[in-house]
Design goal:
The protein is of the alpha/beta class and 275 residues long. Helix content is 46%, strand content 17%. The protein starts with 5 loop residues before the first helix and ends with a strand. It binds S-adenosylmethionine.
Length: 275
């Protein structure tokens, strides 16, 4: 077998490391994600060992294991048992699961008002893209979407994607969940609304400057981009930093922007498309 060129050897080494690492192996992260992270690090750092260290740091931020996870095998069983009992039992299981990831846990106190206010701005959509969705599709019972609305969810974390697929099937929702790195492969399906909740700051950390072309590539009429207004510890006020970040990303674009402020989350409602 011909030896791999230098860069490809480091790419392969990083992918192998992530595939076997106790921290990531159960997540089955897409190869496109791993290859993209190490390739960018190799361009940035002249010494490959430095690039490997940097790539591990970036991957930790992208996967953000510190935000929390349910036990996915137990979650499948709970959802299936609840589905046999009826919708109220499913709502209860979803609520318990949403509590197990920081992004959705923080939204629970105002979840119904959250979607009501967003859809007052955009209108109730008949198709939604949930970009970097985490567990958020399990909030579907509180969204007020019509049952026939299409819901396309995207995440890199395979157990989450599988759980969401199971949930859509059990609930008879017109939904699909894709195991996909949306930065490398942005979705192609058109939708009225795209949710991009609490992730744009990590995209910019992963690849400075990537957010703007990424947003341009999303085929949705409305982009609903949210950011936390407090740090995880609740100690730091992040609102001024995150407003500046969004101003920088959207600067010079001819898009109408409305800001909606909730208790601990700010949503930038961006109207991309006049049609
Ligand atoms: C901070 S959580 C936010 C979850 C959800 N948007 C919410 O606010 O409830 C970020 C999620 O994005 C996923 N993610 C990160 N980078 C991604 C990418 N490039 N493509 C798809 N999913 C990604 C992570 O696996 C994680 O589930």
């Amino acid at each position: 077998m011909k030896p791999l060129p230098e860069e490809q050897r480091w790419v392969a080494q990083f992918i192998q490391w992530a595939r076997h690492s106790p921290k990531y192996r159960a997540l089955d992260l897409p190869e496109t994600l791993l290859a993209d992270i190490i390739t960018h690090a190799l361009k940035r750092y002249p010494k490959p060992p430095q690039a490997l260290t940097a790539a591990r740091r970036v991957l930790h931020q992208v996967v953000a294991p510190y935000l929390g996870d349910p036990d996915y095998a137990q979650a499948f069983r709970d959802l299936e048992a609840a589905a046999r009992q009826g919708e109220e039992a499913v709502r209860q299981v979803c609520w318990n699961l949403l509590q197990q990831h920081a992004s959705t846990r923080e939204r629970l106190p105002f979840m119904e008002a959250f979607y009501r206010r967003l859809f007052e701005v955009t209108g109730v959509p008949d198709a939604v893209l949930d970009l970097a969705c985490g567990l958020n599709p399990l909030s579907w019972p509180w969204m007020g979407l019509p049952r026939e609305a299409r819901y396309l969810a995207f995440d890199i974390h395979y157990p989450r994607v599988q759980l969401i697929r199971r949930f859509f099937a059990l609930m008879g929702i017109e939904g699909q969940a894709f195991h996909q790195d949306i930065l490398v492969e942005p979705p192609q399906d058109r939708a009225g609304v795209a949710f991009f909740f609490k992730e744009i700051h990590r995209f910019e950390e992963r690849q400075p400057g990537c957010a703007r072309p990424f947003l341009r590539a999303i085929p949705a009429r409305w982009l609903l981009i949210s950011l936390p207004t407090r740090s995880l510890s609740q100690k730091r006020d992040l609102l001024p930093i995150h407003r500046r970040l969004m101003n920088r990303i959207l600067d010079g674009l001819d898009w109408e922007v409305q800001e909606i402020l909730f208790e601990n989350e700010v949503v930038f409602c961006v109207k991309k498309d006049e049609r």
